[in-house]
Amino acid sequence: MNIPNDPMMLVSYLNTQLRDFYPSLEELCKSLDLDQQQICDKLKTVDYSYDAATNRFI
Questions:
Q1: 56 Cβ contact list (under 8 Å, min separation 6)
Q2: Which of its termini does the chain have fewer beta carbons within 10 Å around, N or C?
Q3: Which Pfam family, giving just one, matches this sequence (predicted)?
Q4: d(Cα 47, Cα 29) in Å, to the nearest integer?
């Protein structure tokens, strides 16, 4: 899966996917064959972290 490389574009893309199609980050990563830890680490560099209660990066 080709996802945005820029962290800010990535957070926007992932939040849209989570809102519209996936009940959790785990499900999104499984479906798109992405490394969940790698995604979280990348977004942590721009102060975003996954919030399971709201199912989005904040």
A1: 15, 18, 19, 50
A2: N
A3: DUF4250
A4: 20
